[in-house]
Amino acid sequence: MKGKSFNLRIPGPTPLTSAVLKAAARQMINHRDHEYEEMQKRIIGNLQYFFQTKNEIFLLTSSGMGGLEAAIVNFFSLGEKLVFFTVGEFGNRWAQIAKRYGANILQIKFPAGKSIDKDEVCRVLAENKDCAAVFITHNETSSGVLNDIKSIAPFIHTHPGKPLFLVDSISAMGAVNLPLDEWGIDVAVTASQKAWMAPPGIAMISVSPKARAREVHAKMPKYYFDLSLYREFSVKNQTPATPAVGVLFGLDKALSDMRKIGREKIFRKHLELRDYLRQGLRKLRLELFVPDKDASPTVTSIVIPQAIDYHHWLEILREKYGVVLAGGMGETKGKIIRVAHMGNVSLQDIKEVMAALKKSLQEI
Ligand SMILES: Cc1ncc(COP(=O)(O)O)c(C=O)c1O
Q1: Which atom of ligand 1 lies closest to the CA of 142?
Q2: Alpha carbon distances (Å) from 103 to 94, 110, 317
Q3: Labelling 230: which of 62, 183, 204, 236 has CA 20 to 30 A away?
Q4: pLDDT band at residue 1 using 50, 70 and 90 as cut-offs
Q5: Which pLDDT tens digit goes with each residue over 13-63?
Q6: Alpha-carbon torsion 350, 354, 360, 364, what sign?
Q7: 89 lies in which domain range?
């Protein structure tokens, strides 16, 4: 398949549109001059529209993990109790960051392929009146599970300890409805290479006034991800260090194009493609890893049929049919393969995936 363009259906980096590709390839500009400042201002305005928030948003030059680290070190101190409700590998990693920085973490794990159980959230929070914050992965990319943030939020907002509510929406925001202000999310993190259709290299983090009030008391060490520095520079629509200007060119174009389409239409497209794919996979008699009620609008996991070597399967899909899918991660490694459908994805792309799966299965 060398030389041919692949149908890249991994959960990030996602394919760029030709307009974004062109925008990202332009000549560099001075990141301290007016043209850059106008671009950053436009990006933040468009992100506030998609995040549905009036909160401040910062652009960090890093992959998504940098955003998750910033969400820990800026708001907490050594020994503070942080509660993580996790459903897979990315939830584990966020909890690991907090642990390494010396937080007193309480991680409540749910089985891979299932969403967070609300009753358990209610019980755990009632028993932990001293918790400083609650952390949830919106869309667990390693299994394709979407957590119901709206229904969990009230347990956090009525908690006597007034904990912060932090959400990793790295692989959902921009494709899935997450109205930050309406649902009271203090800190949300996402990354450029997912539903935003831009190259990898920029993490985005939003901070509510409640979270900001905690920043002054937070004692965890930080330098590169110190949001107070980002805030200082954001007054001028700049960043403290050199930003990934090329990535921002792409992100700026992608956001402008997405804004023209409108968020509701984009969210609807992702739900429709998910449902179409799931129906098609069932017709192929493939087993879905996640039940319908928890199914992610951006990533779909297929249980690897017995007696199939998934490395071989992925290789045939790629080399013969030009369809690039992902394997599982952590607990799901060797159990599932994943089809991503976020950002720049069409019905035709999904039809091609299904046709390739059908033919490859017949061959194997
Ligand atoms: C939910 C989630 N969290 C965190 C990450 C880590 O992001 P990155 O690989 O950009 O550092 C990912 C990446 O796939 C993710 O999907």
Answers
A1: 16
A2: 12, 21, 44
A3: 183
A4: very low
A5: 999 999 999 999 999 999 999 999 999 999 999 999 999 999 999 999 999
A6: positive
A7: 18-259
2 inside domain:
no
Q: Is 191 in the pocket of ligand 1 (CB under 6 A)?
A: yes
Task: Give the residue-averaged pLDDT of 79-83.
Answer: 98
State whether 236 and 303 are in the same domain: no
pTM as predicted:
0.98
CB-ligand 1 contact for 252 (6 Å cutoff): no
The residue from 259, 289, 319 where one domain ends is 259
Specify the pLDDT at position 3. Answer: 46
Q: What is the pLDDT of residue 225?
A: 98
Q: How confident is the model at residue 5 (pLDDT cuts 50, 70, 90)?
A: confident
Quick check: 185 and 205 in contact, CB under 8 A?
no
Q: From the CB of 65, is ligand 1 less than 6 Å away?
A: yes
The candidate with the shortest Cα–Cα distance to 223, out of 69, 102, 93, is 69
Q: Which residues pair with 82 in a beta bridge?
A: 105, 133
Q: Looking at the 3D structure of the chain, how many domains does it have?
A: 2
To test the pocket of ligand 1, the residue of 116, 141, 298, 299 to mutate (highest count of ligand atoms within 8 Å of its CB) is 141
- Regarding predicted confidence, which is higher, 4 or 189? 189
**Which numbered atom of ligand 1 lies nearest the CA of 203?**
10
Pocket of ligand 1 contains residue 207 by CB under 6 Å? no
Q: How confident is the model at residue 4 (pLDDT cuts 50, 70, 90)?
A: low
Shared-domain flag, residues 168 and 284: no
> Residue range 260-281: average pLDDT?
98
The CB of 171 under 6 Å from ligand 1? The reply is: yes
Q: What percent of the chain has pLDDT over 70?
A: 99
